[in-house]
Amino acid sequence: MHLPQARLDQVLDRFQEVEARMGAATDGAEIVRLSKEHAELKPVADAVGALARLRAEEGELEEMLRGGDVEMAALARDELQALKERLPDLEREVALLLAPKDADEKASAILEVRAGTGGDEAALFAGDLFRMYQRYAQARGWKVEIDSVSEGEAGGYKEIVATVSGDGVFGRLKFESGVHRVQRVPVTEAGGRIHTSAATVAVLPEAEDVEIDINPADLRIDTYRSSGAGGQHVNKTDSAVRITHLPTGIVATSSEKSQHVNRDKAMKNLKARLYDMQRQEKDAARASARKSQVGSGDRSERIRTYNFPQGRVTDHRIGLTLHSLPQILEGDIDPLLDALIAEDQAERLAQLEEELA
What we know:
48% helix, flat
């Protein structure tokens, strides 16, 4: 992709403008805003600068080729060949930085896993999925904090909600939202027949820096005693909190020991769900214009199948099948995530090409 110099100059001009305004700003809120924009623009400006230098060097070498010195022309030819091999990779890197991107790419996320069709087996599978994400998060140094949990009667979870904190959590996990299907022989099945069950996953960006306007009159707040399979973790008092947003019917809960903490967590989760609802509306509108959108915003879509008899995992959105199911369930999901992100990058580059055409 050949990027017009005018587009690259726009980036450098804005970066220099932000730097100049940062030096003159006295208002705290403006300094914070400019610092954030500066941090976002700096890697783009650095890459654009590197590309400009490479293009300038290309012009100099081509000029040497046209000169009368045979020995210098031979050296320039070799250097020019090496430069032309590097140039497309750098142009693609810059194009990806310039392409439309998710504003929540760097955000922490709220991870929700719920048992779907399949009874006890679905709850067990929901437990497998949550542990998969938990191991992946631990390997990347992210913090996982459980907000609410409802355990299955035979193990696993009917529902579990957790906050995953760290840099770039949402950007890595956002394509996990959807229906995950499992095909295996349940431990409770005496006849050894393969059953199909499902669990749903939702990954929501934390709405920390986004203004979500919530009218207190639109909320119903209930306290209750959390339920579970038993043990010390089950509340003995009505400290769990359920907040219902009446206009949308969205419900957020938290069932830790402290009612005060639960109220804060439930409100945080409610804001994330309301923000996610706005995102889904935008995603659906964008997906209708692009047939192959990976993250379509449709949470009812079956996105992946985990087939135990054949030891394979298939992501239906990109037609990728991996014969490494045990490793994936142990948290080695980067091969899946990298392929999904690469597909999304290709779509964003196509969108940029349309804008530049």
